[in-house]
Amino acid sequence: MNEGTWLRGRTAIAGIGHTPWGKRGEHAAKGHLRLVVEAITQACEDAGISPKEVDGYSSYVTNIDPAELFTAFGADRLRFATQTWGGGGGAMGGAFLNAALAVASGQANYVVVHKVMTMEGDNRYGQAFGQIGMKNPVVPGPMAFAIPYGLQAPGQMFALAARRHMHKYGTTDDQFAEVTINARLMAANNPEARFRVPCTIEDHHASPMIADPLRLFDFCMESDYGCAAIVTTAERAADLRQKPAYLAGAVGAAPYRYGHALMGSYNMPDEDFASSGQRAAAEELYRVSGRGVAELDAVMVYDHFTAMAIMSLEDFGICPKGEGGPYVADGNLRMGGPLPVNTHGGNLAEVYAHGMTHVFEAVRQVRGTANNQVAGAENVLVIAGSSPSPSSGLIVSGVR
Amino acid sequence: MSANEERGLPWPALEPTTAGYWRAAREGRLVIQRCDVCGTHRHPPTEACYACQSLAWSWADVPGTGHVYTYTWADRPVTPQLAHLGVYNITVVELDATQGEPVRVLTRVDDVSREELRVGLEVEVAFERLDDESALPVFRPVRTP
Questions:
Q1: Does this complex have an ipTM over 0.90?
Q2: Residue of chain B with shortest Cα separation from A167
Q3: I need a labelling partner for A318 at 20 to 30 A (CA). Which of A55, A85, A298, B37 fits?
């Protein structure tokens, strides 16, 4: 037996749920706790269990307290509570890993992975570091080496990697545009998606430059949402309402000296600077899952920025390093291509929910219920956001 | 009062492992953390040497020259309060004359046009006073007369 493969296929996502998607600030008045409780209720309904049966909670970069959740639902006892590190949506796969470890080892029966955000006022993600500066003008830690220079937003941070990638590999803004074009085409068939109008290269180039070389149409939207997924053992999942979406693998990892990445490090090896920083996560995920690129049927890649989605595809070996630009421009992301990407529309066109919607779409693909269904989809790779260490990923599978 | 406060920007906390960087800049020196055992430079400051794992380190003066590694232009102010800054660049500079893996700092290049700022541009350090105790190292193109 290979080391690290014990967890493979032992757990499954048995239910998914979310609030209606909101534009930034739209759901703020409800409060985060209400939104996440609504999402958990939906996910339990989807799975066919009572929220009272949920005895574990796992999240990432959250201020939601499990004490509130299990008490609200009247669970007999709370048996597992955790969250994990990483920025924004980078840690998503780590939250699923923790949930899977908990149920596979018998620490808990049903662990909810949850995430909620409202982006009103000073919670706007697009202004993230500017807001830090306004809330506390004296910046500690590694970000002290960035924010005081006017690096105020994720778009500016990732523009540094995009520019380096263009310099090193000749990547172009026409190629960035294709990521948005594909997202809009997918979203056109998704009634819940926000941006369902087609986009052309000309539309992309006409959108305002925000953080050179990234334009408005290279940025994802800001959204309000509550999301939840039920993780349980493969055996329990088989007896529930939905076809199990087995976790072939889930990992959180970062490569050598990747540190806080573009939020305050800048001293990783050159190859990883012009990347999504996910080489380590990719290698670990393929190792523990026993799956490789050849076994994949679709890819859901975190697309907070077009350029970073391209780099994530490279880091996960979907195409060779440095060839991500030509790979997307050749139409390989689209339905009918060798490996359709972001069949829900992604962060660029559906909603920005820090990676949870990419997992949801992978679950729908293996259930066979996606709006843009890939025929016979069995293994779907979900790539979390490029972020401070660790980033993450998971592979959802229709078979153990 | 920090000069950055007037600009609407935050400023660095002077913490045990970082204060020396900002204080040296106030004295007009660019210093980088250097391992006392193996001599490897590292940045941003860390508590151990990535090369030999030693905890012993000192600040070491570096020449303050280097080249542009990557950059972006802040074409749109992130918050309305920053609109008065206009369009500015955010640049990563790779420094000359360090030991170990390349040392890069995030900074800004002053006195440079949009056309001139390119990967590879040679730059040298300058200092922008924040308060009596600290300054920001910034850079400008090397101009050969």
A1: yes
A2: B119
A3: A85
